[in-house]
């Protein structure tokens, strides 16, 4: 335990728990009484009043005795939350604006069997609650407990006179399990399961630790342990559970890396998520939680003139100060080591003041006075614009089209006044603007940002057709010849015509070219066998040929094109096929494109990456239709990708498959059973091709285009 939290930090946590426990201990019996009745009470009215000593008292009236609240305080943002079990909201509004003293607004939300009252504070302060009759009182401010001291004995006397013999013993909330999981990548999630949802929850940050205080929830001894979760690779390293009497404290130790956490409760389960964030996100989160960045100062004054406080703050900021004559009154404040902009905001809110900063001059006046002055200025400027005489200006547009700029300068965009008009001259690419001088000045300012050179992108495409061929051939050649030498001869060799074959010890036999029937024996010297049998001068020749080929081919084209950012580019290659159409007895010839086309629209992102809208279209000639026309087969691929500058994108999956079979045979002989194979040639072809597209976009720099 010492490795996670110093003894001082644990002591502070114990003191905080002990303080909250004492505040709850005297009210437990009343809570039991309020829960024994099933009748739901309703909030019927609300009111607030300021008290001496910079305090505020909030009163909630019910139609019956109100339930005792379970409450807790949140430091950032500063707020107090009260849960009223067995109550409902009978007010017409769920939000009450207070904006007085310490409290900004009050929100009432119904959650199942209870009403949750959320008081949004200007700063974190102490508070206390007490019940009197059918009203619940909440006092905000330093020493709030002194205000309700007189009310507490009355409650004690009422409890002494009550018959408590039949009151059941309280069923305390217990923590049933504590679990940890890694979810959604590397988010660490802590599950705290309880027997019911009545425990008060107070989550605080102390140093780099997150402590979940569960008021009124008992922790079994079996769960009082430390769990090491470093191996889960989440922002959480340890989860420590510790019991403190009838309360519990769960300490969650994050790693040193920046993180953000979110806590929420669903029925009897409290969930705390820890999500890793980048350094930039951590800084933004810190600014959102605490947006004040001014130099820190300390102020401790009792009943001081507010003008003097404003002058002190102005001296610290080294700014010129203008204060309205209507700003008056005194203020008591004690601020220690607080940014000056936060101190100024607290002072202004306390006195319903507001500020406007122009350059190095800060003007302070009542908020209503500033709002009225700004409304007056708006009306005055409107009248001045209506009285001004319109002027005509000719504005040259350099890079954009003047006609495109016209659509951006309408009255809806706030650049033209109600009497203004604008036209475009396409021949000179000039804008003709007629309006008052202030509107023309705004148009010129807008054109400085719109009329700029558009960045260009060079797109290099490589279109590759990968083809896999598989063909099989089987054929026979028959021949009958005559040789001069007598005797029986057998010729055997790789080829029959014109070859010399060795047979039976004779010197050599020249076989004449006498293959009379050719059924597909190829001239390729592979898998071919020839044999000749002769008697006297007659030679019968037979040549068998079997060929199987398996290969691939690539057809590559490499076009390049340059296009402007956001403008489409098209690369197309193909043919046009004529088609005949008949209309009213007249024959017309039309042409249809059979092309391979690539459409690319690039968009440059602020971080110099590219978003490409791609569309690939591949047409091919299909089968011939019965009417003699030819169909067109279309393959299309459309997608959007994000790539870095100069990276290559590969697209594929557009396949074509073609199977053919051809048979050649000798009439009559080729139709004989079994023997017909000797007079037949069969050719099977299986062709499969895939289109691969390699696209490489490159941003053209201005320096390169200049050279």
UniProtKB/TrEMBL annotation:
Q: Name one Pfam family in it.
A: STN
Keywords, alphabetical: Cell outer membrane, Membrane, Protein transport, Signal, Transport
Q: Which GO terms describe its biological process?
A: protein secretion
Q: Which InterPro entries match?
A: AMIN_dom, GspD/PilQ, NolW-like, NolW-like_sf, Pilus_4_PilQ, Secretin/TonB_short_N, T2SS/T3SS_dom, T2SS_GspD_CS
Localization per record: Cell outer membrane
Q: Name one GO cellular component term.
A: cell outer membrane
Q: According to the UniProt entry, where is the signal peptide?
A: 1-39
Chief localization = membrane
Secretin/TonB short N-terminal domain ranges (all copies): 319-367
Family label: Belongs to the bacterial secretin family. PilQ subfamily.
Q: Any idea what this protein is called?
A: Type IV pilus secretin PilQ
């Amino acid at each position: 335990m010492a490795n996670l939290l110093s003894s001082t930090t644990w002591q502070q946590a114990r003191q905080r728990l002990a303080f909250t426990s004492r505040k709850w201990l005297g009210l437990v019996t009343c809570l039991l009484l309020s829960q024994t009745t099933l009748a739901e009470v309703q909030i019927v009215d609300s009111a607030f009043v300021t008290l001496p000593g910079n305090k505020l008292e909030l009163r909630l009236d019910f139609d019956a005795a109100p339930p005792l609240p379970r409450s807790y305080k949140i430091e950032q943002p500063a707020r107090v939350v009260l849960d009223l079990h067995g109550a409902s909201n009978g007010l017409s509004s769920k939000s009450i604006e207070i904006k007085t003293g310490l409290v900004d607004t009050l929100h009432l939300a119904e959650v199942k069997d209870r009403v949750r009252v959320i008081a949004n504070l200007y700063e974190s302060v102490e508070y206390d609650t007490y019940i009197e009759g059918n009203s619940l009182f909440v006092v905000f401010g330093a020493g709030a407990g002194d205000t309700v001291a007189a009310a507490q004995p009355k409650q004690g006397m009422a409890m002494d006179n009550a018959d408590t013999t039949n009151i059941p013993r309280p069923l305390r909330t217990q923590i049933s399990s504590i679990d940890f999981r890694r979810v959604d990548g590397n988010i660490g999630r802590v599950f705290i399961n309880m027997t019911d949802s009545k425990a008060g929850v107070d989550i605080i940050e102390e140093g780099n630790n997150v402590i979940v205080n569960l008021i009124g929830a008992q922790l079994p001894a079996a769960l009082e342990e430390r769990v090491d979760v470093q191996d889960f690779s989440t922002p959480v390293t340890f989860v420590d559970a510790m019991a403190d009497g009838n309360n519990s404290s769960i300490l969650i130790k994050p790693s040193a890396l920046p993180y953000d956490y979110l806590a929420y409760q669903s029925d009897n389960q409290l969930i705390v998520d820890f999500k890793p964030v980048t350094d930039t996100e951590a800084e933004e989160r810190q600014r959102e939680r605490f947006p004040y960045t001014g130099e820190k100062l300390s102020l401790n004054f009792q009943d001081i003139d507010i003008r003097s406080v404003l002058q002190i703050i102005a001296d610290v900021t080294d700014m010129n100060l203008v204060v309205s004559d209507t700003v008056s009154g005194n203020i008591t404040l004690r601020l220690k080591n607080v940014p000056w902009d936060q101190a100024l905001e607290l002072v202004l809110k306390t006195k319903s003041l507001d500020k406007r900063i122009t350059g190095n001059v800060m003007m302070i006046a009542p908020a209503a006075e500033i709002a009225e002055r700004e409304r007056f200025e708006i009306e005055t400027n409107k009248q001045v614009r209506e009285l001004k005489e319109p002027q005509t200006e000719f504005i040259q547009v350099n890079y954009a089209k003047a006609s495109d700029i016209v659509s951006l300068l309408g009255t809806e965009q706030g650049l033209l006044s109600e009497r203004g008009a604008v036209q475009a001259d396409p021949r000179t690419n000039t804008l003709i603007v007629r309006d008052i001088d202030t509107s023309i000045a705004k148009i010129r300012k807008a054109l400085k940002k719109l009329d700029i050179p558009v960045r260009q992108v060079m797109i290099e495409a490589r279109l590759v057709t990968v083809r896999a061929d598989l063909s099989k051939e089987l054929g026979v050649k028959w021949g009958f010849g005559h040789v001069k030498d007598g005797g029986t001869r057998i010729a055997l060799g790789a080829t029959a015509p014109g070859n010399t074959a060795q047979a039976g010890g004779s010197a050599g036999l020249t076989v004449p070219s006498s293959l009379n029937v050719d059924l597909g024996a190829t001239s390729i010297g592979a898998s071919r066998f020839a044999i000749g049998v002769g008697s006297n001068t007659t030679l019968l020749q037979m040549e068998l040929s079997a060929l199987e080929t398996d290969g691939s081919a690539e057809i590559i084209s490499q076009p390049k094109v340059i296009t402007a950012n956001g403008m489409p580019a098209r690369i197309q290659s193909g043919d046009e096929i004529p088609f005949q159409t008949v209309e009213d007895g007249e024959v017309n010839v039309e042409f249809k494109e059979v092309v391979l086309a690539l459409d690319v629209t690039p968009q440059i992102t602020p971080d110099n990456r590219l978003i490409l809208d791609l569309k690939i279209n591949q047409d091919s000639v299909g089968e011939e239709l019965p009417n003699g026309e030819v169909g067109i087969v279309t393959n299309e691929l459309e997608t959007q990708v994000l790539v870095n500058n100069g990276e290559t994108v590969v697209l594929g999956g557009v396949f074509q498959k073609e199977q053919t079979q051809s048979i050649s045979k000798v009439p009559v002989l080729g139709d004989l059973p079994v023997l017909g194979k000797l007079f037949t040639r069969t050719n099977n072809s299986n062709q499969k091709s895939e289109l691969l597209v390699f696209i490489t976009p490159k941003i053209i720099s201005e320096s390169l285009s200049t050279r």
